[in-house]
Structures are given as structure tokens and as C-alpha cells.
Amino acid sequence: MAAEDIYRENILDHYKHPRNKGKIAQADAEAQDSNPLCGDEISIGIRVENKKIVDLKFDGSACAICIAAASMLTEEVKGKGLEEAKGFSKERLLSLLGIDPGPVRLKCALLPLKVLKLAIYRHLGKNPEKEDGLV
Out of 4, 20, 29, 109, which residue is the most buried by the measure of CB atoms under 10 Å away? Predict the structure, then answer.
């Protein structure tokens, strides 16, 4: 089996069986955003203790790439410190996906990362518009 096929299967698995999907009843911070070009909508809630993300969940309606990216991203940042999660790069998320989504689907793949960072900035009481490199 080719490596590209393995990545596609991984994306489909995360799409059909997303990890950390749902809502957190008592989230410390939440954020949501959408991609008007394709209709993807994602929200993420985080629970923080001792400057670490102890729980997070995402919800929404989105394409396979966006849902898979949200599932993989939440698996990667759960248990991590806020600063480490805030520094999660788009390149790292794209490497988790293992495919080049191309220019049209790039926003689909990166929407969950943008929403996660918005939630972190809200928790920290910072204005994300003034911060460099949100995504």
C-alpha cells in the first residue's frame, strides 16, 4: 500500500470516527469560526488547569479534511501547555494530515487550528487580532 493511500485512510478514519468530538459543558474558553467558501463551521471548547489543556472538544459541520484535521489536532494538543498549543504550526498540522490539500482545501485543513488558537487567546484574555501568526 502506498504512503498516500495510508494517509487517505487515516483521514477517512478520523472523519468517520472523530476523536474529541462534542461539547464541553463547562469550558474555560470557546471559539468558533467558519469558512464561507465551502461552508465548514467548527467550534472548539477547552478546559485548562495549571496552564495545560486538560480537555478539549470540537463540534461543527465540515468536510472530511476539516473534521479529520480537528480530530488529529485535538489529539495532539490535549494535555499540552497553553504556550505549546498556541505555537502549534500549520506545517505541523499539515504533516499530520499527510497530504497536500492544495490551495482550495488549505483553509479547510487549517480552520480547526485557527479556532483552537482563538480559544486559547480568549482564555488568556488576549486579542488575537494583535497577535502574529494566528495560523
Answer: 109
Contact 110, 90 (CB under 8 A): yes
Encode pLDDT of 57-90 as tens digits. Answer: 999 999 999 999 999 999 999 999 999 999 999 9
The x, y and z cell numbers of residue 37, run together, are 467558501
Distances (CA, A) of 19 to 11, 35, 40, 95, 123: 12, 21, 18, 18, 22
Lay out the sheet containing 52-61: strands in order across: 29-35, 40-49, 52-61
Q: How far apart are CA 31 and CA 119, in angstroms?
A: 5
Domains and CATH numbers, the chain: 3-127 (3.90.1010.10)
CA angle 9, 10, 15 (to 5 degrees): 95
Report the predicted TM-score, pTM, of the whole model to 2 decimal places. Answer: 0.91
Of 105, 116, 110, give the one whose Cα is nearest residue 94: 110
Task: Find the helix or strand (DSSP H, E) in which 53 lies.
Answer: strand 52-61
CB 74 within 8 A of CB 58: yes
Can you read off the three cell numbers belonging to residue 9? 485512510
C-alpha cell at 44: 472548539
